[in-house]
Structures are given as C-alpha cells and as structure tokens.
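Can you give me the bound-state structure? Components:
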Amino acid sequence: MLSDSSFQRSDLSSYTSGMKILVIEDDREAADYLEKALNEVGHTVHVARDGESGFVLADNGDYDVMVVDRMLPKRDGLSVVAGLRSRGNDTPVLILSALGQVDDRVTGLRAGGDDYLTKPYAFSELLARVEVLNRRSGNKEVETTYRVGDLELDRLSHVVKRAGQEVTLQPREFRLLEYLMRHAGQVVTRTMLLENVWDYHFDPQTNVIDVHVSRLRSKIEKGFDTPVLHTVRGAGYMLKAG
Amino acid sequence: MKTTAARLSALYLLLFAGCAILLVFYMTSLSGRMLVGQIQDTINEEMAGLGRAYQRGGLASLVRVIEMRSRQPGANLYLITDPQGRILAGNVQSLQPGVLDKLGWTERPFGYQRYGEAEGERRATRYGEEATVDADPTQPVHLATAVVLRLPNQMIVMVGRDLGEPERFRQVVQRALIVTLGIMGLGALLIWFFVGRTALRRIDRISEASRRIMGGDLSGRLPVEGSGDEFDRLSENLNEMLARIAALNEGLKQVSDNIAHDLKTPLTRLRNKAESALGTPKDTAEYREVLEGTIAESDQLIRTFNAILMISRLEAGYSAEAMVDVDLTAIARDVAELYEPAAEEVGVVLESAVDVAATVHGNRELIGQALSNIVDNAIKYSADTDGESRVVVSLTADDAEARLSVRDTGPGIPEDDRARATERFVRLEKSRSQPGSGLGLSLAKAVMGFHHGRLELADAEPGLLVSMIFPMIRKPDETADRPG
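Here's the bound-state model for the whole set.
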C-alpha cells in the first residue's frame, strides 16, 4: 500500500546505528533518491548500477540488507539474488519491481528474495521493510514471550498482559499484536500488516487495517496512561514503550 | 516460371511422362515376351506333331503333313530341305541366308518370303531391324522366328511363325504412348491455365486485399466468391479474424478513451493544485498540505493504473501456475473479518453466513482481492442509506458450483444498468460522487473470467446482490461413487 502523505524522514527510523545497505538499481534518479533518503535516516548506502557489479559488491561486502531492482542491465536482478544464495550468501534482500502481479511476487520470492515491493513505492514503505529485514535486528521467531514495557505476550499460551492484567484479544488481534511486538521499535506499514497478519498482498484501498489497529489499541491502552501503540504519520505503526 | 502453378504443372508433366514411358516399356517388353513364349509353344507343338507323323509314316508322311498344313490359311512356316539345302516342301519361298545353318531355335528374328506374295510388295519393318533381315531391300520381307531340326537322313526341317503379331502390338502401344503424352501435355497446359490463371488470380486478389487492409483500411475484407471452396473458407476465416481484431481494436480504443478521461481528471487536479500552490506565497504548513494532497492524488492514480494492468493481465490470460486448490470458505471468512471493523465504523453491520466448505481451483490472492472490492463497494453504498445498513457475505455450494455472494442494503443498480456496471471505468451516475477507481466490479469480473466462473448482479430488494460463481472441482472418488 502506498503511504499516507506527511512525514518527517527522521521520524521513521528507529535505528541509532545505521545499517549498511547495498542498493542495486540502474535508474540513476531512483538510485540517487534512495541513497540520499537512506543516508538521511542514518544508513550507509552503496549503489551498484548493473547486475554484474552489484553481484560482485554483494559477494564481497558484508551488508545488512540489499535492495535489488528486478530488471537490471548485464544481469537480471533475480539471477543476482539466486547467484548469491547459491554461494551461501544469506543477506536479506528486498526485491523492487515494476511487475506487481501475484505470480511476479511468487517468482521473486522463489529466487531467494525475502520481500517484494512494487514500484512506485512510498519511501516510508521501503524503509520500514528494509529495517524489518535487517538481520541485525535479531531473530525473535524463537522467543516465546515478547515484552514491550509493561506489555507482555506469551506466544504459547496466547495470553496478553498489560501491567500484570490480562487483556482478552480475538485471534486476529492477537496475531496483529504478535507481529507488532516482534518488530517493536520498528515502523510497520499497513501493507506489511495485511501481508503478515492476513496473508493477502493486495492493496486494501480503504482504512480497513487502521480500524483493526485502533480496536487493538483500545484494548491494550484503555485504562492505562502510557500509550504503547504509536501511529507514525505517513508510514504506519510502531509499538514502543513510553 | 514465375508462378507456382506453372512450376507445378511442368513438374507434374515431367513426372507423369517419365512414369508413362517406364510403364509402356515395361508393358511392351512383358507382353512381347509373353507373345513370343506363346509362339514358341505353338511351334513346339507343331514340331511334336510333325515328329509323330515322321515316326508313323516316315519321310513321305512327314512331307505330306507339311504340304497339307502349309496350305491352311494363316499357317505357320514350314520348310523341309534335302541335305544340300534345296527346298523340298513347305510354304517358304526364300529365306534370309544362314538361318538353316544352325540347329535349334533361331537366335533373332529373320526375314523370309512366302509363296504367292505379290512381287514388289513390301511391308514395312521397323527401322534398325531391317539391316539384319534383308540384303535386298526391294524384296518384300516378313520377320519370323523358327526352330530348325536335322532329320536322321541329314534332311532339315524348319517350323516357324510370323512375328507380325507382336510387331503390330508394339506399334499399337507406341501410338497409344504418343497420344497419351500428347494428351498429358495438353492437360498440363489446361492445369496451368486453370490453376495459374484462375486460382492464383484469387490468391493475388486476397493478397492485394490484405495489403489494402495493412495499409490502414481496417474495415476492408477479403473477397469471398461464395463457392465454399478452400479459398473461400480461408478468406472467411481471415475475415473473422479481421472482425475480431477490429472489435479488440475498438475495445482498446474505448478503454484508452476511458483511461484518458479517468486519469486525465486527477492529473489535471494534481497539476492545478501544484500550480496554485506556487502562485501565491504560503507558509510551510500550507505548502505541506498541498504536497500531502498531491501525494494522495498520485497514490490514487497509481491504484487506478494497477487495477487497469491487472484487468488486462487477467483478460490476456494469467499464468496458470498461479492456480491451485483454494479454500473458498477461508477466503470468505478472512475478507468478512477484515472488513467487519471498517464496516462497523461507518454504521454498517457486516455479517458472514459462511458455513459450507467449498474448495475451488483458483488463486487465493485474486479471489480475495475481488471479494474485497465487492465488499468494499457494498459497505460504501450501504453506508449512505437510511435505516438499517447491512452487508451479508454468504457462501453456498452444490455439486456444480460454489456461489460467493455479497448482499447489501444500498440503492442497488437498476436492471438496465447492471451489464454496464461491470465495464471498465463505469461508475453509474448516482455513484459519481463516491471515491474509487470505478474498476472494482470490472476487476471482479475479470477475476471470475479467469476462474472460468461468472459474476452475477441481481436485485436484493432492496440493494444489490453480487455473486461470484465458481465451477466446483469434481473429485474423482465422488464421481466414481455416483451411478451412471
């Protein structure tokens, strides 16, 4: 989904120490824009303008995340990703493409991409996805309990507590909160929520996700003074203590 | 040899002539050999008869029999000579020299003359055989084959038969061959004339017409003569193809007109906003507001583009790889659950009556998106109405099809407009004020077409009933259980 409109870039990134990002994109303007914007939020960006040199850079450099355009001169983006994967390089990859249909996404992810974003995209969307992909953010899949401030979620017993008090959630609300807590401190967009909580990849057009989030918010914040589920203007939501 | 017909006729002529000549030679040699064989059989029998006469009555009997047989009409050749070669009896007047020197069958035909043949009469013999036959060309000559025997008393007996019969046969065949080849030559000319001048002229007319059509006259059609032959069928099929192309072209034109209209309007708004923002100096907050509006407007444009692309892609045939068995029940529940809070917020009750299990062959994402569009529309149109607003998502299934329906309490669509409602960009007049690309139902229709199903609009009294109808997957074990 495309973004709401207003944001300050500096609001969007929760990272104090920047990530090292490789952008493989042949369109000069798009690459410059990405480089500048990612720099502004504190990330280090290297840019390759074709598939061959991108592959060489990726193979030698130690990147936290790569952003790879699908259609590249010299070597196709999917082939770059597949090549890296076959050499044991597991750097997370966000594939960018003008092709956005269901089967395009499937082929993109099958080639070894970790996420897929269709052009034109909102920078906030790209940034949120890149930061979620960052491998240094750790693998929270293995944790059985998530904690953000006084909010606590037990993934096994499906019990959610705020300041020790149990909060009753619907199954979907539980999955929504689970995803937000897994990426606590990171911006998650509406599209990311639709993809990861509902497993649909289309553009919901209306505010369906917002309404779900505000229902969840009322359940976990009602009666408590401190908000934990924040709306990041122009981007999405972030779960953060205080 | 510019035309195919001329080339073909020449080739056929050559081929046929070759075959005919081969056949004729084979036949003449075969039947010639058979005739000669018959002649030899006859001669052998004669000889045996003479032998019996000789044994019965000696030389006198033999001479008598030969004299008798010689006088019969159409008789064989008979000759008996004394040891010095003087003719004693028989019907041969003269003989090519050397014939009697060798016993047994004569190796090649020889010339002879019978008694009683008119002086100076000469029967034509084949050129080339003449030399071996006759030293004196003024003498009338016949050709014959014979067997020569020496009696115990050194007298020589010869029995032979005229070869006129096989010779005549050969001449008949030869004449037939010449006539046949002549007819074939004529036939080739006729074929060239009909194929080359008639059929090829039609091909020329067809290619001329196609050139005109390629030149831009898309309304032009290929000539059909009404004979129903291959050329007509070809032209008819090509004409149908042209008609289809013209229809697609027309559709494309209409779509691009619609796109132009529906995209130009927001683009113009976008441009006007930016222009007026630049026109007068403003503070940061105002600029910000304009830019926000600009982004929102372009997002809407991108959505419209995406929907158009998706519809075209679906209509062009999506990759079948994206098709698997999908749980329609789960999709219906997902979408109902997804939209329920949003519906509630605008005062619409969204109910789901999804109790049956239905699995269809399809694409979960596409079905989910199509259903979302329908539900989104239903909520939008129900929200404005007075009284209770209710949207019901329901799923029913039988052996033949699964029916995923969305019923709303909105204003509905008049029957006359329903077909038009699923066309691209059609937003019926009453709904012009509603936000949206006008592509929701068109997309749903395209998705249903892709799934070999259909989209039905009906009156829900009040409101609209939109049904996505999927053909059911027939499981092999189920059909096997059924009798018949």
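A couple of observations. Chain B has ten helices and 14 strands. Residues 113 and 272 of chain B are 124 Å apart (CA to CA).
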